[in-house]
Amino acid sequence: MANMNVVDMAGKVVGTIELTDSVFAVEVKPAVLHAAVRAYLLNQRQGTQSTLTRTEVSGGGKKPWRQKGTGRARQGSTRAPQWTHGGIALGPKPRSYRTDLTKKTRQLAIKGALSSKVTENELVVVDAITATEYKTKAMVAMLNAIGADKKALVVLAEKNDFVVGSLANIPGVKTAYANTINVYDILNCDKLVLAKGAAEQIMEVYA
Q: Which residues contact residue 82 at a Cβ distance below 8 angstroms, ignoring those fewer than 6 apart?
């Protein structure tokens, strides 16, 4: 197990935490991370896009001109795809983009993402992230103190509306709980900020 410093909200080292190797020091497999990110993004799609075919657009009930003798190409309807205001040929219809990964793959991807943050020195463990009022300024000061002033993912151990609400106003900062983390958010941040309690919960679940 590797020891990592634990800091307080002022950025001062107040202790250490042992990170389980089976969670924070596994081999990073790009193919598994790619599959997890792809699945996450696909599952965010609503799939509600829809176009009207020639049978669904209004009008076009009458044949525009007789079949033969006009010198023009034969036409059966003014709502065929080649006409202005005509229907769409082979356009998208509502569908589900839902895709699932196996439990083993999901866990391996989470471990790989967490391990990559440790390897790249982009993980910060904070002793406790607390607030007793909505105060964005205090959260900005904390992020600056711990070196997470850019794009950050803050993972909490338990619900705290004051912390979540204060962080919500900061551009590039996203919050999550230990049981809701996903590979995309972990890889998409410049700094992963874990509350000590959240780190312990993650190790308990994924070890």
A: none
Tokens for 173, please give them: 């900062």
Q: Write phi, then psi, for 168 (nearest 5 degrees).
A: -65, -25
Task: Determine the Cα–Cα distance for residues 109 and 111; give it in Å rounded to an integer.
Answer: 5
Q: What is the pLDDT of residue 2?
A: 77
Phi, psi of 176, deg, nearest 5: -155, 170
Q: Assign 3-state DSSP to the chain and report helix, strand, coil percentages, each to 5.
A: 35, 15, 50
**Per-residue DSSP letter, 80:** S
**How many residues in total does the chain contain?**
207
5-58 pLDDT per residue, tens: 999 999 899 999 999 999 998 999 999 999 999 999 999 999 999 999 999 999
Coil, strand or helix: which one is 29? coil
| Arithmetic mean of pLDDT, 162-167 | 95
What's the DSSP call for residue 79? T
Output the CA–CA distances (angstroms, integers) from residue 68 to 2, 73, 75, in the order listed. 84, 9, 10
User: DSSP secondary structure string, 31-75?
Assistant: HHHHHHHHHHHHHH---------TTTSS---S-SS-SSSSSSPP-
Dig out the tokens for 205 from the structure: 């679940």
